[in-house]
Known about the structure:
The structure holds two protein chains of two kinds. By secondary structure, chain A is an all-alpha fold. Chain A has eleven helices and no strands. Chain A has helices at 2-43, 46-59, 66-86, 90-110, 115-127, 136-153, 158-170, 179-195, 208-222, 227-241, 246-260. In chain A, helix 3 packs antiparallel against helix 4 and helix 10 packs antiparallel against helix 11. The longest helix of chain A is centred in the first third of the chain and has 42 residues, at 2-43. Chain B has two domains: 32-109, Sandwich (Immunoglobulin-like), CATH 2.60.40; 125-739, TonB-dependent receptor, beta-barrel domain (Maltoporin, Chain A, Beta Barrel), CATH 2.40.170. Chain B contains five helices and 46 strands. The longest helix of chain B has 19 residues, at 3-21. Chain B is globular. Classes of the chains: A mainly alpha, B mainly beta. Chains A and B meet through helix 1, helix 2, helix 4 and helix 6 of A and helix 1, strand 2, strand 3, helix 2 and strand 42 of B.
Amino acid sequence: xKKQVTHVILLLITFSFLNANASSDFDKAMLKAKKNLxxxxxxxxxxxxxxxxxxxxxxxxxxEKVWLVNYYIALSDYGLATAAMVKENTDNLKKYxxxxxxxxxxxxxxxxxxxxxxxxLQALHFNRWQYEQEKMQEIIAATTSAxxxxxxxxxxxxxxxxxxxxxxxxxxxxxxxxxAVALPKLEKAVDVFKTRKETSELYPDWGYDLAxxxxxMALLKRNDDGDMKKAKEIIDEAIxxxxxxxxxxxxxxxxxxxxxxxx
Amino acid sequence: MTPxxxxxxxxxxxxxxxxxxxxxxxxxxSVTVTKISGFVKGDKDSVLRGANLVIEGSIDGATTDDxxxxxxxxxRTGPQSLLITMIDYSKKTFPLDIIxxxxxxxxxxxxxxxxxxxxxxxxxSFTSGNTNAVTLTPLEIVRIPGADADLYRxxxxxxxxxxxxxxxxxxxxxxDPNEVLTILDQASLYNPFIFDETFNVSSYSxxxxxxxxxxxxxSGGFSAKYGNVLSAVLDLKSYDxxxxxGMFAWLGLANASLDGVYLSKKRxxxxxxxxxxxxxxxxxxxxxxxxEYSPIPQSNQLGGTLSQKIGSTGNxxxxxxxxxxxxxxxxxxxSYIGYFNGSSKSFFTNMKLMVAPSSxxxxxxxxxxxxxxKKDNFGVLNTNSKSYYSKGRADFTKNISxxxxxxxxxxxxxxxxxxxxAIPVYSYNLKPGAPSTLLDTNTNSGxxxxxxxxxxxxxxxxxxxxxxxxxxFTLANKASFDPRFAFGYQFTxxxxxxxxxxxxxxxxxxxxxxxxxxNDLKPEQAIHYILGYEFNKDGNYIFxxxxxxxxxxxxxxxxxxxxxxxxxxxxxxxxxxVFLKTKIKNKFTGWISYAYCNSQRKxxxxxxxxPSNYDITxxxxxxxxxxxxxxxxxxxxxxxxxxxxxxxVLSSSYNQSEDLYIPVYxxxxxxxxxxxxxxxxxxxYIFALFGKFAVAVISVNxxxxxxxxxxxxxxxxxTQQVEIISNNQRSLYLGLGLQL
Lengths: 263, 740
C-alpha cells in the first residue's frame, strides 16, 4: 500500500513537473514575443508588428492564458492601427482597429476582470473617431462603457490614467479638454508608473515612456513659466526609461525643438 | 542496505526513468529538423504580407514577409496540420506528412473572408455602412437642414424620391406612398409615422437613425428577397447588441427625448430604451400658429430593445415601440368648416433570432406584430380604423465560395383591417348630417412568399444576381411569380455600370376589396428596367446617372358603371436620376440631386392615362454641410420641384335637395400646384457641458418663407379657388442634446 502511495505521489510530482515545463515554454514564448512587441512598437514598424502579431497567434496553440495572448494580439493590432494612422492609410486603420476590437472582446469574454483589456478596448474605440465620426453616439457609448469597466476594476491603472490624459490632450478646450486639463491626469499616470510593479512579468507593462512623452507635450503646449525646462527634463528621463522609443526620441523631441526653436 | 532504503532507491530510479522517458532530460543533439517554406497568396496571386502559419498544437511557424514568403523549421514529424490565418481572410488548414529531414515547399492560396451581410451595391441603391459606397450616414441624416433628423426626409434629398406634403411619407419615381416598403430587421413597418395622412400636419418618422447599423434604400430594381412592394424598399438593420452603456437627453423647442443603452459586463446582454414627447406650445409661441388648433399637435413615443447573445455567433433581439398622436386643426371646405380631428396609436414588436450554424452560413428568423389604430373626424366623416399585421420570416444565406452566395427565404404575413363609423356618400358634402354610409366591417388577408437568389462574382469587376420569388395572396386567391436580375460591372477603378430588371407585385390595399366583386383583384404589377453609370472616387466624389422605365399592369381602377374596383388599370413611369456628392474630409459634405420623371397611370378614378398623383416632373435638391471649426457645423438645404398634379373643379351645379353646389371636375390630375421651393439652414455647436459631450442646434426652416401650397379648396359655389398654404412656413427651432 505504502509503495503504491509513493508511486502515486511520484507520478503527481512528475506531471506537475511536466506541466511546469509546459508553462515555462509558454512563459518563454510570451516573454520573447512581448520583448519583440516592445521593439516593434518603439519603431512603429508595420512589418515587425505583423511578425510579432503572428508570434502571439502561434502562442495561442499552447492554449494557456488565451485571454492574455489575445490581449497582446489586440495590442499588436492597436500598434498596427497607429502605424496606419501615421501613414494616413485609412483602410488599414479601419482593418486593424476592427480586428483589435474583435480580439480584445474575445479576451474580455473569457476573462472580464482585467482592467488593461478595457483600457485597450477604449483606446481602440477612440481610433474610430478617425474614420467613422458619424457613429459619434455609438463611439461615445463604447468608450464610456469601457472606461467605466476599467475604473471599476482598477481605477489607478496607469495606462487608464494615461489614456484619460491623452484623450484630454487631444480634446479641444471648447469640449472640456486641452493641455491644462490633461496635465494633472498625465502627472498622476507618471506617478503611478514610477511605483508600479506588475504582479506577473507576463502582464502588460507598456506606457511609462508614452505617459512621460505626453506629459512633456502637454507642458510644451501650456508653455507657462518653467514648462519648457520641465518638459526637457521629462524627455531626458523618458529616454533613460526607454532609449529606443521612436515616439520620444523623434516625435516628442521634435516637438520640443519646434517649441524652443533649438536644433 | 535496509529494505526501506532499497524501496526508496527503487522509487527514485522509477522517477528518473519516467523523467527520462518523458524527454524532459533528453539532450539529443542529433535531432533533425524539417524546413517548411513557400508563398501565401490571395486572389489573383496577390502578395499576402502578414499571414500567419503554425503547426497546430505547437508554436512552430512563421509570418509571411513583404513578398508573401514564409519559412520555418520544425522538429515535428508524421501527420501534422498547418493552420494559416490572416485578418480579413478565411482561415485554412493544410494536412502535412512530415518526414524528418525532408524539406517541404508549400504555396498556399487564401480567399477573402466573405461577410455574410455584405451589401453589393445594386442599381438605384443608396446605402450606409463601412464602405466607400456610403451615400448617407446617421450623422448626415441628423445634419441635413430641414430633415429634422428624420431618415425619410433625408432620403428625399436623393433623386427619385419626394416628400408627401412635406412630411416623412415618401413617394418614389411617381409611385404611390404605399408602394414604398420599410423593413426593420426583417419585419415590415407599415406605420412608422406620427401624424400620418393628417390634414395639413406633416408626418414624422418614429425611427431613430442612431440605432441603425445599416441603411439600404433602393428606389427600383430591388432584390427577390423583397415581396409585395411595387416601387421602393427601405431596408434597415439595427445593432444586434448595444456598443456600450450611456444615455442621451434632448430638449428642444418642440420636443424632448431620452435615450439609453446598456451593455452587460460580459457583453452578452444589452438593452436600450427611448422616450419621446412632442409639445408645440413653445414652438408656436416663437413662430406663431399658421392654423387654428384644438388640440394642438401632440405625440408620445416609447420604445426599447433587449438583446441576448447566444453562443459565440448567435443573437436574440426583441424590439417594441409604441407611439400615439392627436391633433385638431381648423379646415375649410365648400360644404363644411370645422376642426379636422385626427388621432392614432401605433404599436410594433419584433423578435429576431440570428444564428450562424457555420462560418459560411447565416440563418435569420423573425416574428413581428404591429397594430395601427387611426381615428378621423371631420363633419359627417367619422371613422375608426384598425390595421393588424403579423409576419414570420426566415432568411438563409450560404456562402458557397468566395464567388458565390446563395440566399433563400420564406415568409408568411397576415394583414387584418377593421373599420367602423361613417363616411360621406358624396365626397363634396361633408356637412354633419349629410348622407353617409355607416361602416362596421372587417377583412383580412394572408400572404405566403418564398424566394431564392444567387450572388455571383466574376473576378473583382463583375457581379450578377439572378433571383426568383413567388407570393400567394389568400384573399384574392392569386399567385405571382417574379423573376429578377441585377448586375454590376466596374470597368475601371472608379467607374461602374449597373443595371437591373424584374417583375414586382403588390396586393391592393384591403380597403379596395370591400368594393371588389368576389375579391377578384389581382396583385398590381410593375416591370422595372434600370441602367446606370457611377463614378466613385473613394467615396469622396460620387457621380451617378441612371435611367429607368417602369411598366404597370393590373392597377386598381374604379368601374364607373357598376362602381366595383377591378384590376384593369395600367401605366408607365420613365425618368432620369442624377446624383453628385462630394466630401472633403472633416470639412465639407454636400450633394446635388436632380430627377426627371414622367409617370402616367390609369388608376383609381382616372378613365385614361393621366399623370399619376405624385408625378413630379423635375426635382432638384441641394444639400451642404460645412465644418466651420471643430465646434461649429453649418448646413443648408434647398429644394425646388414641379408642383404635384391635382384634379381641378371646372364648374358646379346647385342641388336644391342637399342645398349645396356639386362640383364638376376636370380631367384627372390635369392641373398642377405651383412650383415647390424651400430653403432650410442650421447651425450645430458641439461642446462640453458638465464635462459631458453636448450639442446645440439652431435651425431655420423655409428661410425664404415661401408660401408653398398644401392643397386647394373652393368657396361655397366653387367659383373661387382658394389656396391652402402649407403650415411649414418660416420657423425657428432650438435644441440641446447632452450625453449623460
